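Continuing from the previous page of notes. For each protein in this section, the sequence appears first, followed by its structure tokens. Read the first protein now.
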Amino acid sequence: QVQLVESGGGLVQPGGSLRLSCTASGSNFGLFVMGWYRKTPKKKRDLVASSTGGGQAKYGDSVKHRGNNSRDNAKNTVYLQMNDLKAEDKAVYYCSADSVFWGQGAQVTVSS
């Protein structure tokens, strides 16, 4: 069993930046594909970004060119840096390990 805890959500102004963190319990963190997803009341859960244990990252269209996904395997932590945030980025952001284990979600609100 892997427990994931997200942090770093909150309110940010349009054009601002935010960094989400997700820390995993347990061992073998480096073996997991870690993903960031987001969900709004009107949309299904979408992939935002993901990374393999070796650090290979990919991004969904929603934050492409505005996001940076990184991980520190020694700290069992993955990060999602999002820049130039827009109102449509408002969502609950979830961290996942292999799309099997999920965090509780972090609310991100973009508003002036």
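Done with the first. The second protein uses the same format. Note its length before scrolling.
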Amino acid sequence: HVQLVESGGGLVQPGGSLRLSCTASGVTFDEVDMGWYRQAPGNECELVSRIASDGRTYYTDSVKGRFTISRDNAKNTVYLQMNSLKSEDTAVYYCARVFSTSAADYWGQGTQVTVS
């Protein structure tokens, strides 16, 4: 079965950086699109960034120029490098397998990012 395991969250001061990692198993990783979503308290879950199997990327407007998504197919891992973090980036971040523009079917357990 598909399993996604995230790591890398934590507490960071505004302006700081974090790198999230998500390692997948049970899937042919180089054939799937992957995404990072986040959900803050009281907010809906939103797609932060997506990377296609061919490497094309998407970013939501609020993180453009600050976040970078990448993938290492040899390691079955997708990354989210987050720089210049703001308090409004505070949320639980989820890795997911994306199967359409923004819909996902398999999710990781989530990792907390707190900017304060």
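What the second structure shows: The mean pLDDT is 96. The first strand starts at residue 3 and ends at 7. We return to this in next week's lecture.
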